[in-house]
């Protein structure tokens, strides 16, 4: 499940492969951007902000959000010929995903970036970036995030469920459902508890940052320190707790979203270790 660490790794890989090169292929496969073109522009850099990946090309920013299944993939230029059914002249190739899954193609002479199953894709002048993303809370994977501001925002609504407060990207950016579910276990708190009932919020924010930092350079995420058994409760409903052996329960908890159909997320907890 893509979260802030996934966006960080994607941005790092895109930055390494594309920065400083000129765009020779540009397709954004969403209706409002179907005719947009940045051909010939230089890719100035790629960054992540929370769960958003930002490609800065010329004077514009291409913004993407993974949602539940999105990703960026780097493929060699020779792969384009193979994807079109032609024999590549030279160079290595990598199979492309099905065409209907590709929402963005940004190509250079050295590499092609494919945006696959992206939940959101947009473009705007880089000068207007704060107008579009200024609503985000402090990014927990920033070099020096304003943790005090994140704590302040969460504490403004003491009767809100802790899961909703942590998942709300307006409070702090980067945490997703897997992180929040595991944080509740690590701090021994039921996901239904409110901010007021969860003790020192600074401890929650610091834990979220530590976990993201620990996972940001890993392809496979872990909360236990063991890649073979990566989670304590997330995705483990009906199995014994790794600490006490009690069967993990499942249900729903608040998501922090007001969008219809998205107000709750899947929850898992140990009824013995969490109270």
Automatic annotation (TrEMBL):
The keyword DNA damage applies. Residues 2-92 form the Formamidopyrimidine-DNA glycosylase catalytic domain. GO terms for biological process: base-excision repair. Its EC number is 4.2.99.18. Residues 232-275 form the FPG-type domain. One of its GO terms (molecular function) is damaged DNA binding. The keyword Transmembrane helix does not apply. InterPro entries: FPG_cat, FPG_N, H2TH_FPG, Ribosomal_uS13-like_H2TH, Znf_DNA_glyclase/AP_lyase. Gene3D superfamilies: 1.10.8.50, MutM-like, N-terminal. Keywords: DNA damage, DNA repair, DNA-binding, Glycosidase, Hydrolase, Lyase, Metal-binding, Multifunctional enzyme, Zinc, Zinc-finger. PANTHER family: ENDONUCLEASE 8. Belongs to the FPG family. This is DNA-(apurinic or apyrimidinic site) lyase. It comes from Gulosibacter chungangensis.
